[in-house]
Amino acid sequence: MSQRHGPRQARQELRALYDTGRLADAYPELPALLARLDDDGLDSAGRLLARLDPADVLAAHPGTPAVRIAVTGRSTTAGLLPALTAQLARHGLLLIGHTGGSGSYVQDLADPASKLYAHRPEATLCVLDPLTVWDRVRAPWQPYDVALEAERQRLLLAELAAAHAAHAPPGAALVLNTVPLLRRFTHQQTGLLQRCELGAVWREFNADLLRMADPATGIAVLDLEPLTSAGVRADDPRLGAYADAHCTAALLAAYAREAAHLARALRGDTKKCLVLDLDGTLWDGILAEDGPERIRAANSLRAGAFAAFRRTVEQLASQGVLLAVCSKNDLGPVARALAAHPDWPLDVDDFVGIVVDWGPKAEGITRIAAELGIAPSAVVFADDSAFECESVRARTPGTAVVALDDEPALHTEHLLADGWFDVPSVTEEDRGRAERYRERQRREHRQEGAKDYESFLRGLGIDVVVAPAQDHDSARIAQLSLRTNRFNLTGRRLSAAQVERLAADPDALVLAVRAADRFGDDGVVGALFARRDAAGLHLDNMVMSCRVLGRGIEDAVIGGLLYAAQAAALPAVHARWRPTAANAALRGFCPAHGFEPVAGPDEDGGGVLYRHMLADLRPLPAHVRLRLRLSPTEPEEVARCTPSSI
């Protein structure tokens, strides 16, 4: 599809695809097309895409990632599905949706036999419109009466959340939202003091809703206040009176955008690295023309807007977003410019990758991704040049492109518009990610100085501990299962709540893999999910962070598991590999460690089942000090399963 035209041309292309019956066939191309649409265009696109049968898309493209979402609410919610369809399509996701009847949310969520649960949703959007609570308040009323009804509503939602956790598929999220307070209610109070009391009551109600958010229990809450404070009108009295539709189309569209970001985050589809241009993006001016000393940092109002953007970037980095630079410049002046100003919040050490040359930026982004060991699809690229943005879109499919302009005061708004870095919860491992990548770079520098790779590995002093997961590990292990693609034996994704349930199951086994070496502590870098029965130990899945691959850790862990199973007198260890879009290299992982394929198909469809009879165990990597414990009750001496004493 052409990238040279604007929103109008994009709308015409989309309409032509629909009119000629080619929309399903072109579905993988839609993210690039939808990226060119404005809000009105996305509204039209949603209405077209909502007519598309998801089965047709999956028939044409079986690998299309689909997300099952149910929508219910206090009033009519059907208008949300088209907007949600378009927003998910923008991110390459296919909506398989269900919507309940008007005002049916209590029945939908409370009844285990409801159509909502029959849909088997990954996420349920329970839309709380602006009349939530007010439909139960009777005149004459005072703020105290509203407080009572708000508390009743909160208790009802807590009961419905418990019902959803019991009846929805494991790991499914219930999504609530804060409720806008309308002027037509506040100003029914003529006393200014009582109006303030009502405002306080309502803010406490919304605060209680926000406190219900808990990834471990599968509850998410969308805060609508940032949307309404940005000018989105919450209600249309006429639609409310005549159609029982109490949310405006603009509010539903903004809600759909946030819900799509949430869906991506729940699926682990979160970007890892922000690659930034310099001239006109991080600073005001052209370095090659102005020179390092004349690039302004924060000494003018316009330069102050750039400084505010850099502080936003710094805030993202503090939560685990990797920063890199890709600029058409000369390296020396760039290094001097980054160090030139005392009020500069970022310096060279804050960037895990810097590509400064005069080559295509698409190649620079690909190089940065390769050096970090991530895919280009895990990268967000921000630039103020329309040419560079379109070039990167065309040459690095999957890379998210943030098109900035010549107004630096809007850079932050553009960067944060699509929630590329949203995660269910930020962990300590996230906050230390940049430092771990710098440790990786130090390892690589040492490797370059070593005579051979084996001597390099021996010099690392790798220490690996594999033990039953603790409560505080659940969020990190869930994050690994959601975001790890290359080393994920089966591709199975788990929420924190599912990890906690497995860890509490006496028949299941969740092992956390921790690694450290002379350059630092990597924390939890992997996990094993297993269960025991009379046939032995069944390894249901194994995930390992890509940042530690190649050090022999994965070989030590699987080998150690076999030694521990033998020491526990288990008859065999069973495993499976199921292919995904990214784990093809793991097809030979189990056979390389002595597993034999078992005749018959994988019970879950596709893939290969393996079995190891534990008769012939291979030596573990000599450079890894491994301690492995299958359960808290087993002595560590049994779990020290390396052939040599450690």
Rg from alpha-carbon coordinates: 27 Å
Low-confidence stretches: 637-646
* Shape assignment: globular
First CA to last CA: what distance? 60 Å
- Assign the CATH class of the largest domain: Alpha Beta
What does this structure look like?
With 646 residues, the protein is α/β, with parallel strands linked by helices. It folds into 4 domains: 1-63; 65-266, Rossmann fold, CATH 3.40.50; 273-416, Rossmann fold, CATH 3.40.50; 434-639, Gcn5-related N-acetyltransferase (GNAT) (Aminopeptidase). Helix content is 41%, strand content 17%. It contains 27 helices and 18 strands. The strands form 3 sheets. It has an 8-stranded mixed β-sheet, with helices on both faces. The chain has a 5-stranded parallel β-sheet with strand order 2-1-3-4-5, with helices on both faces. Strand 14 (536-544), helix 25 and strand 15 (573-577) form a beta-alpha-beta unit. Helix 3 crosses helix 5. The radius of gyration is 27 Å and the shape is globular. Mean pLDDT is 87; it is low at 637-646.
